[in-house]
Give the backbone structure.
Amino acid sequence: MRAKCPLVAVLALWTAGALSAGQDLPDQEAPRTPEPLFTRITIYPTASLSRYDYNNDIDLYEIRVYVELRRGSQDGAAVAGAVVTSLAERLEFHDDHYEKKIVFEKTALPAELDVQIAVKGRPVLKEQIPLPDWLVLTEPGPSIIEAGRDLAIRWRFDRFAAPVDVLGYDFRTGKEFLQRPNVAGTSVIVPAADLPAQTIIRIYVVQSWLYKRYLDGRDHARGSEVNVIPWSQVFFRTKGPGEGKGS
């Protein structure tokens, strides 16, 4: 038994040394969860009629998608280099956000769309976003309108009516001559005296109450949101006093 004591002592010293050495090793860091992203997705279902003097883009229906990504919060630095797609189309980075205009046939307008956001070092963010409606101007069309008459502006919704803001600009001077917020129904009348003559007019209607949904989950910073704002526009020309029908 005595012959074994030195061996036992050596084993004991070796074990103690190994334990001591293990205590001196730095702790291994657990994988860090990527900081959340502030995400703002803004979608404009857009119905644009062509200008009165063009025939190559009449009834242009498109969805304009804008995605803003910031690190940590709304005040964080903009995230460049992400791969952002919607309906299989890649959004382009401009200044501090991503954007894309996606064109559709007016007989095949989508009722929803997807947005996918891939940032290096974190899971892909996927959102499926329903479109509450399409808002489309039906009158006036892109045409030449005689001066001295009241102007009827009409629009429609595909699924349900909502209040709209109706605005009108003299496109040549940039001056606004019409501003009617929160209009119920689907039409307004502009008195002839309020309609500028011998110029190009832009009329547009935009849904007064935007559709908003907040995004939750640990990958989204507080306040992350989705906004959907349907709108429609038209350009036409008004005749000046004394202009003939063929002008």
